[in-house]
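=== Per-residue structure ===
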Amino acid sequence: MALTLLRGIRTSTLFRANFSLFCTTQRRPLAHFTTRAESVQTTEPKAVPKSIQQATKEAAEQKTQGFESVIGIETHVQLSTITKAFCSCPNNYGSQPNTTVCPTCMGHPGTLPLLNAKVVECAVKIGIALNCKIAMTSKFDRKQYFYPDLPKGYQISQFDIPIAEKGYLDVDIPVEFGGGHRRFGVTRVHMEEDAGKLLHSESGNYSQVDLNRAGVPLLEIVSEPDMRSGIEAAEYGAEMQRLVRYLGVGNGNMDEGSLRCDVNVSVRPIGQSEFGTKVEIKNMNSFSAISRAIDYEISRQIILHKENKADQIVQETRLWDESSQRTFTMRKKEGLADYRYFPEPDLPEVVLTSEYIDEIRNLMPELPEAKRRRYENMGLSMQDVIFLANDDKVAHFFDSTLEHGADAKLAANWIMGDITAYLKDEKLSIDESKLTPLELSEMIAYIKNGTISGKIAKEIVVDLIAKGGTVKSVIEEKDLVQIADPAAIEAMVDQVLADNPKQLEQYRAGKTKLQGYFAGQVMKASKGKASPVLLNKILGEKLKGSC
């Protein structure tokens, strides 16, 4: 019997646990890193070979060494649904351990999963955004493996018929990393559930199991092996995070584990068509860490090739150690046969209609790539474009400012400059600021018509961010209207020159840099309100006449 999804979110009574418990498993002490290894003990080399550390830098120039890297990424996106994927337990991050669980997500016998329709909606959104082919019919499968935080002994996932496949993601590389546009293929997008979490004791003698995360909905996005450097992989990951946030399907916070990137790295001699042995790297909690981990792993593999030790590169999972800036073995990599996939018998097929997909497509917001191209067509620099489109809240603020008639470049300068600096110091996001797009556009208009100077505007914008209000009220309250009367400015210039005869004599003797000193004194006397254009014109004429 097929399940046809139309729209909406399944609602049901939330299961509320009235207890909080930890399941405890005894285990042998582990090294500094705690891993998901079952039988492979984590060991760390006593010393990091100096040549490997030096080779990290050389990885950026790998083509001159006769090798190229091949990189693919598996991105796990935790969805911000109200309930879990297959039960009515709340999907809340940070709850007390084992308080958002029920018999279904704890894997009790006799319980049956019920698909959350919102998960399918999020998957279709991501599939459309990644230019994928959406499967009109897909199914769920059981992925079998044993681990203490997987209570059922299997994970509900999708194997041979994912909900979306054969797409791509466009990425703009920042100017500081060489710039340029890249297109990376996306192999597939599939739905699955998350596992629980192990909390390891400080002594390393035991672990506690928190099943709150068990059953939380995930989308796994698998890229094609199209990346060739750590920078490209990191920018791919960052663009995926932007996409998730723009679509509103998840918060994309790496520190919470809401977005996790596992990278597969191999190297091969340039000109060789066959891939080398790939190594999976985990435990990277930032995009810069992804870049550094990949560069290290590329260097490690190149060194082994050059030393005729390529047989030591095995298919395995390695962990990135941030403190030592290197990877080390976690476990040997499982193959597909080890997971013993078979169709999930307790869930029907997911059958979509063209109307359902079109409805979602029509409600899609403008995505980061389209926004960057639009900003680029406004004449903004690539640096401006990437900055503004990086955060959907900043982009929305910028667009709203333009809707009120502000000049695009001036608005970009203010947002990227004084506004961002103040928000960073105060640890605020732009939507937490009391400055509105309307008032920013008003302030820019006041600067352009000469009512206030740029210097006065810097004082006003701080007030507006912190306290709110209008530009006009701040100007009137603090008497900040720019002095644009030539006679008034000329009087102030005459007074400054009269009060500084020594400096005037030095100027006449050829020390022309003192013009800046005189201008500063006039601005001080006017409390920063003198029109800079008129001031420089009048001061220049006065000084020229005095020579």
Remarks:
- Residues 125 and 360 are 7 Å apart (CA to CA).
